[in-house]
User: What shape does this take?
Amino acid sequence: MKYDVAIIGAGPGGIFSAYELMIKKPDLKVAVFEAGYPLEKRKCPIDGDKVKSCIGCHTCAIMNGFGGAGAFSDGKYNITNDFGGTLYEYIGKDEAIKLMKYVDDINMSHGGEGTKMYSTAGSEFKKICMQNKLTLLDASVRHLGTDINYVVLENIYAELKDYADFYFHTPVETIEALDKGFKVTYKDGEIECDKCIVSVGRSGSKWMEEVCKSLNISTLSNRVDIGVRVELPAVIFSHLTDSLYESKIVYRTEKYEDAVRTFCMNPHGIVVNENTNGIVTVNGHSFEDPEKKTDNTNFALLVSKHFSEPFKDSNGYGESIARLSNMLGGGVIVQRFGDMERGRRSNRKRIEEGTVRPTLEATPGDLSLVLPKRILDGIVEMIHALDKIAPGTANEDTLLYGVEVKFYNMQVKLDENLETEYKGLYIIGDGSGVTHSLSHASASGVYVARKILENM
Ligand SMILES: Cc1cc2nc3c(=O)[nH]c(=O)nc-3n(C[C@H](O)[C@H](O)[C@H](O)COP(=O)(O)OP(=O)(O)OC[C@H]3O[C@@H](n4cnc5c(N)ncnc54)[C@H](O)[C@@H]3O)c2cc1C
Assistant: This one.
């Protein structure tokens, strides 16, 4: 089989590449390879009844399949250059924002209309944060919610499926550079293509490393963010979440001058397990549907670790810490903040006696046996700093789930077109190390599609 363009990975990066190609050049022959299943077949076996926690499926329905890692996410599209990736370093700040807005328009015309756009612009909280040694980052946030995000993906797929050949449950094994174009090999066959867009996200990070090795493409090791997910009564953060929905707040610790930041805030949401390459970590969701809303808000507190020579394996470091929590807790560990400060483990009784009802079934334990001291100290300091702008954050019953790890792919050497040294081979989205959000990954997809069309 011969294609004009092969796209590897049907997460936001791959989807928006395909969508842009379809809109601008409907006569192209496009293939999309996806390791996971179509959207409607993506079912995590955890039902809270027979299967209560992660059983380590071969293909994780949460991370893989049409929609990628973002399919069951909270669908927060942050339109900003302040976080979510460094796409602007390649394509410029104005272009990056324009593309994120373009993606937002497409989402709005595919079921997202009516969802709310929040903004930090002119927010009174900037000053309040500053007065308490906290920095509120700038962003406009479109909150689709897990349910509407799903509808948008369904609608986009309905249009794409007649345009591109989708190869589901087909992890690509190798990419080979030919004199003209590329050969893409998978378990039961191979295809050739003129251009290849690789958008394999975080779950494809190990495979991406192998591809770069085999094609001799330079990479840089990156960072890893480690921390906990905080869960507390929604009223404690309601003054922030009602007007901003998600506030990205950064704190510089007094002890080490490390930056600790809030990440992925889910008002009235739930805490969930996440399985990355067999390691169970924690994440969060929230829904637009009022019936699915809970009384709790959750968000992550993360500390970034950058390593210098000779250590290169930042993701390996994060995995080891997550593995330690899996070893001690059989999965994710939950601890009351009061127990942590007293230096004692939480047990079932202490959690049950607390006023915050956990939304995730996790093992009560002691996170200080898992998290390095420097990271734990930073998190405790930040909780006390947040308590000044959202009193109650440092309450004894506030729940901390661990560990939350944000893995970053190593950064692939790319030019301003997001193209490798092999002409026609583009690497985009989280798999490139350039982006780490829905909006940046999607924007990178549109960008390379346009670059490909320009060169045709
Ligand atoms: C639970 C959760 C909640 C999140 N919430 C948000 C949020 O609210 N806002 C936000 O901005 N970001 C959020 N994120 C992050 C966001 O989902 C990612 O940044 C985004 O999905 C990256 O898009 P991508 O296309 O680069 O990669 P992905 O979405 O990871 O998609 C990559 C796809 O490639 C496939 N793949 C991998 N290897 C291969 C291979 N060898 N062959 C074929 N296919 C392959 C995978 O199966 C996957 O479907 C969340 C992530 C998770 C896990």
